[in-house]
methylated diphthine methylhydrolase
Amino acid sequence: MTDWMDARISDLNPCSLETITQSVEVIDGDDTSRVWPLMLSCYQLSEQNSTRCGSMELHLVKVPDGGSPQSMEFGKPYTILFPSETSGILDGKWTEVSSSTQNESSWCFATAHSTGEIRLQSFRFGGASDQREKPFRTTFLGQSEVDETKNGPLCLSLNWDKTANSDQKRIVSTYSNGTVELHDVYFSSSTGAANIVRKEAWQAHTLFQTPTEVWSACIVQDSVVSCGDDGAYKLWDIRCLNKPSHVLRTFDAGVTCASAHVADPNIFAVGSYDESICIHDIRFMSDTHSLLKTGSLGGGIWRIKWHPYLHNLILVGAMHGGCCVLELEGLDITEGSDVKHYITKEFTAHESMAYGADWLCYKDPYTQKTMEAAASCSFYDKSVYLWKSCDG
């Protein structure tokens, strides 16, 4: 019996798959249902003229009746950006924002583009039903500064600061020229407008004295964790960015992914091309010791996603190794002590690099019954899957 419930082929190469992990309510005509908004962002290079185009598609994956993931489907795709409208998109992230309308869920999706800018798009779910073609409303909010010469670096990744409030948030972004940037994002709950302002930019990673790719970064407490192709990950105190507070080289290859814990503000995970993951507590940083250093997980680590409410589970996108779910033992009681890990699920249907992965989780407010699944995408074969994240 196959582990996947639905599959599709994307028109372009998908490299980012992001969900609102715990579902929202939408009204489609006379039908009210709970869905997981799932955004698929794509990047494609034209070999003929070396141009990069992209696309952005939204799926509203319905929460199945009865809390069983057996019948989950992607459903109809809604194209948010066509290839003719955007450069390549390398990453994207959701964040919830304040809504001025009662019973409406308001979200912002930020995207990292091959032309170097960050774009912001708003989405509103669950408003009063009308004759709209789509069960949501979406508006382009704005973007960061664009390099008019078109010779600037690629924006490789971005992450929202998970601790920021709803009206003023912060984004950390990384670039192909070795730099990291911090942006303040201001939302107006009355007008729905947003403004993104770059506050800090610094050279973070070099290889043989040449700037090298910073593949990922996240914000943990008052520090930025940056991951470079130079094989190092660095902690930068946001209050004093002239030099890193820690430089760690625990991997045997470039460092590709940083992910802050969804509930514990002190915990973060980093992954590498060398197929392993390290987990740290920022209060007990050491150049020689981490809470956990896994062995090989089957492929280079490109995505690490913490479970939204089972905080000892992480979903991993492991490139040519497919995807897996790790259970961590002892993370909730750690005071700098070691954490054990177990692989509880492997998903190997992808036939090329698994770059995107995320959770789809639901907890019934009345019965407290929970269900979960996962979605993932792979780049070269353009495949996208919905699959069972646990056995049984």
Notes: The chain has a mean pLDDT of 91. Residues 4-387 form a domain with the Methylamine Dehydrogenase; Chain H fold (CATH 2.130.10.10). The chain has one domain: 4-387.
